[in-house]
Amino acid sequence: MGGGRAAQDLHLSARSSTEGARVSRLTRLLESEKALAAALLAPGVAILVVFIAYPFVMALWYSLTSIRVGDAGHFVGLDNFAKAVDDTIFQQAFKNTVFYTFWATIFKLSLGMWLALLLNRHFRFKRVVRASMLLPFIIPTVLSAFAWRWMFDPTFSVMNWMLYHGGMITDRLPFLSSGDWAMWCAVLVNTWRGMPFFAITLLAGLQTISPDLHEAAALDGAGAWHRFWHVTWPLLLPVTLVVVVFSVIQTFSDFQLIYVLTGGGPANSTHLIATYAYQIGVASGLLGEGAALSLFMFPVLFAVVWVQLRYLKRMEAA
Amino acid sequence: MAQFKRRDFLKAGIAGILVSRQAPLFAQANTVHIVRWNDFVPAADKVLREVFAPEVQKALGIKLNVETINANDIPARATSAIQSGSGPDIFMLLNNYPHLYASAAVDVGAIADEVAKAQGGIYEASAALNRVGGKWVSIPWSVVPAMIAYRKSWFDEVGAKTFPKTWQEYHAVGKKLKANKHPIGQTLGNTFGDAPTFTYPLLWSYGGQEVAKGKVVLDSKETLDSVRFMVQFWNDAHDEGGLAWDDSNNNRAFLSGDISASLNGASIYVAALNGADKFKTEKGAPLHTDILHAPLPAGPKGAQAYHTAFNHMVMKYSKNAKAAIEFLRWAHKQENYEKWFVVQKGFAVGATRVWEKHAMWKNDPVMLPFRGGAAQQKRLMGFSGQPNQKAAEVWNKFIVTGMYAQACSGKVKPEDAVKWAAGELRKIYT
Prior knowledge:
The complex is a heterodimer of chains A (318) and B (430).
Chain A: H1 2-31, H2 33-63, H3 79-86, H4 88-119, H5 126-132, H6 135-138, H7 141-151, H8 158-165, H9 179-206, H10 211-219, H11 224-252, H12 256-261, H13 273-283, H14 287-295, H15 297-317
Helix pairs in contact in A: 2-14, 3-14, 4-9, 4-11, 9-11, 10-11, 11-15, 13-14
Chain B: H1 6-20, H2 25-28, E1 31-37, H3 42-60, E2 63-69, H4 74-84, E3 90-94, H5 97-100, H6 109-118, H7 124-130, E4 131-132, E5 135-136, E6 139-144, E7 147-151, H8 152-157, H9 167-179, H10 196-205, E8 211-212, E9 215-216, H11 221-237, H12 249-255, E10 261-264, H13 267-274, E11 291-294, E12 308-314, H14 321-332, H15 334-344, E13 349-350, H16 373-376, H17 389-396, H18 399-408, H19 414-429
Parallel strand pairs in B: 1-2, 1-3
Antiparallel strand pairs in B: 3-12, 4-5, 6-12, 6-13, 7-10, 7-11, 8-9
């Protein structure tokens, strides 16, 4: 009987020592920062690999082959890129993309800043106004672009109707039927849609600036413009740069708005790189050429992001 | 106890099927998913969903799943389906898209032969668009002939008692119409239907060609003449908004009384007919009573036309390819096809000769010009070469339409527009 209990104790102590070893291994593993970091990063890395890296590598590979829909094709080196450079529609699409991104970003930044400064003041229904300002950003782009398309419709434009009945025009304005007008219309719609993002982010930045600084500047005799230029703008610059980086990326690779609003017309005058790459790669089935066209966006965006982030880093160091 | 033989079992089974009027379970599991466009005649989509679907379920035990999307979006759906190896069992493809997706298609030659034999032969143009390397990669379902719908009273007002026979006459009449604030409406936008079905025949009617004996010959005097003519015609007679129109803008503009004429399928007339209470002339008469149809006028090298082809491709990746083929065989049978054909009222016609003789044509003389339209088509994209992948690339990049659109926009001289288009063609054909 006594011998039995001793054996049981021995058994229990052996089990607890094994469990202890196991627990300590697990604890050690969890306490190891490297292992924990790897475990926490793994889902993010997996998502990046599956949804970003894999499609990107595939696009790179496609761009070097003559792949067509339903035909794997063969390696053609840089032929697709050479064909794109030589393609006048692509040249126009590239210029359009730069124009569209440049002007839309300028307008979004200036109007967004203006709106943020206005919303930073105290007034009645401040919260309601701030929330409602986000509406253009919340509505799906396809829906809002359709609404704008109706407003710019060559025959039934409500804007033309109002201007005509208001006695301001005698003939319809060619909102979407003239290449230049159509491009400016696209810039306008993009600005309308993207401005709230600028305004709300800059507003958040404005609220981190201590009112004491403005008061001190005011006591020193600085006017509204000087207070903005010497106090607000330098302190807001890091946030502004980040917003501009995001906006440039989104605008340069824009697709939905142009696809719905103009379809790249009239006579290709509003085609962007993304819409033209889609037309060639997906609608015409020339997947290799489409991939090459879309990859032209990569070095441009990479350069923009690199320059801006480098500038930001230098400012932080200073 | 009586012995129950295998033959008895089969008899009982068949009797069961006949009594229950249901196909056996394994056949019921056959679902055929077909993707088509949102038909400009919505009643036709209704026939597919409300007549074809239950009838084919009863006849063959096939559950038909009809999905309709914007025609401009079909190539994107087909491309992603082919590349991923999964998607609808049947795609409706326009024009020469079967040439682009030939490698992803199941041979439907058997059905094509049956249909051709039973229905007086498939039109030459439809056959050329669906046969690749001697193989039927898809089967022609219908053709939507393009005719000019015009307002009879407004043409009468400017002295045109009959529709102009030549481009020059049409130009002269159009000038007067525009002066009366009734311009001609024509899309030159990046769109699949009304733009190329206008620009290609215009080019051909002046003697212009994309290629000849394997070489690009677009930059010819004939092409330049056609572009120069179009610029004048555009400025003098057209609604300038057409540069931004898609395939539906002209329908709306015509029905609202903003334009006097437009190249189109019969959908304008069919809509006016179905909405007789809604669409009226300025004098209050139903609009359809003031609409007539005419073919495109002739140029120096005669009159030409392009009618949009609608074809069905059974996809190789499909696990239900057999059922999909059976469905198409069933749908092409005259007694079944007729149910779809009659609601079209002539907007879409059959791709075989037998439908030219259908009694429906006696119902409405206004629709008669559409009856023989498809039969007369002799030229296709890529003329005088083949309607192959290269021709499809030119078509999809809207190069021929873009040539006219650039010149009509006034930003580019006709000579430069032709030079640009020929240059783009050479890059594709070399």
